[in-house]
Amino acid sequence: MSLRFLRRRGSGSEPDAVDSVPRLRVFVPQSVQHVIVAYTGMATVPLVIGLGIGLSSAQIAMLVSANVLIGGVATLVQTLGVFNIGVRLPIIMGSTFTAITPAILVGQQGGLPAVFGATIVVGLITWLVAPWFSKILRLFPPVVTGTTIAIIGFSLLPSTASLIAGDDPADPEYGSPDRLLLALGTVVLFLLLERFAGTVLSRFAILIAIGLGTAAALPLGLADFSAVGDAAWFGIVRPFEFGMPTFTLMAIIPMLFVQLVNMIESTGDTIATGQVVGRHVGPHEVARSLRADGVSTAFAGVFNSFPFVTFGNNVGLLSLTQVTSRFMVAGAGVILIVIGFMPKIGASIASLPEPVLGAIALVIFGTVGAIGVKVLVRADMSRARNHLIIAVSFGMALLPVGSPDVYAQLPDGPQTLLSSGIAVGGLTAFVLNLLLNGGSADGDTTTGGTEREAERAAAPASADDGARQNPGESGEPRETPTADPERN
């Protein structure tokens, strides 16, 4: 593994945008932006699981620190690569929301050692099956990948409402004009920066919008940083803090369903990242990404954390900023590791006003959905069967989003799978394409057509697809990213 820095113009071939290292004044703020976008999700999963199991505040704080720390390590593995593990693309890793319900149920019955034991097992299984799972990538033409990516973004949009309006509808401040106006103002500020700021400044539009939004929240009483003073400066994350793991089928089986969901989601996120950064993503790359998921998940079980997956919201951030260096995202991983050992920094990020974070999340999740729509444009929309695939997949995906308890009467395993809009939507698109198009790409029934379309589904987008070109230090347009000639 070697760092390849930008060479001067005219000194020979340069690494593309993914393998370049931005200037320090770009590198650090962009890394911080990715941390801020990812941190809320990383803190929420252990918080909700801890509350559901009935842990103390100190135990929950330890789970949060462990989760953030392992998220940083997993991000380094995914971005930099270790042997054949890690796709070496700018991907942030974090714990999955899909694991929340199974982890609470298992934890209430068998305790956290059972949860962590199951996490270790399913992580190792994911690592083992990754090469075989990735070989079905040819069965993911644009109508399937585009639908899945769009569902990832659009199904996450409703979650921003609880950040903007509040968690408790019975609270008198729920959906107050101050909260709504603060969120709206943050979105408007971001859009103004994107439209009128220079290219360099617009790269940091999210960071600026968060900073100014937080400043506006202080006089409104919507920002509370009192928890920062109570947090410790340093903390140590120890393996097996809750005891040695236990291994039971009762715990492992529901977590296997979680990992199936994660593998579908990670495949979609990895393909979406390839689309954004202009890299080919085929079976080889998907296998590397899934191996990183598996190893990170097993490692998480050792260090008191939960199953890990690629973070789709950070894919949206890449598309917005067009700063796609994997080393910049690796820098975000280093920051996450530091935060894992310094709870006070984590408390500062966690204290940012929720309406501001919700507004930024709204923009980012919508951007992920738009990337999916961009991929869908490549599908043959003259075919009515493709209309059905998209329509039914979106319907199945948004059903549990609009009515979270619709599958409450089902057994735990099917309930886990069907309650994830992302998983059920992606799986529906995959199965319907097999049934209606014979598994071929957009209805081409020849094997060659299938393989050609599968290649196009994972091929990098062209410069004409709307990727913004950022000027270099001299103000000259940056060249459109090209595929890396090396296969890592």
UniProtKB/TrEMBL annotation:
Native organism taxonomy: Bacteria, Bacillati, Actinomycetota, Actinomycetes, Streptosporangiales
TM stretches of this protein: 35-54, 60-77, 89-108, 114-133, 140-160, 180-197, 204-222, 242-261, 327-350, 356-376, 388-410, 416-436
Keyword tRNA-binding: no
Domain of life: Bacteria
Cited InterPro entries: NCS2 (IPR006043), UacT-like (IPR017588), Xan_ur_permease (IPR006042)
PROSITE patterns: XANTH_URACIL_PERMASE
Protein name, UniProt field: Xanthine permease
Composition bias, Basic and acidic residues: 475-488
GO CC, one annotated term: plasma membrane
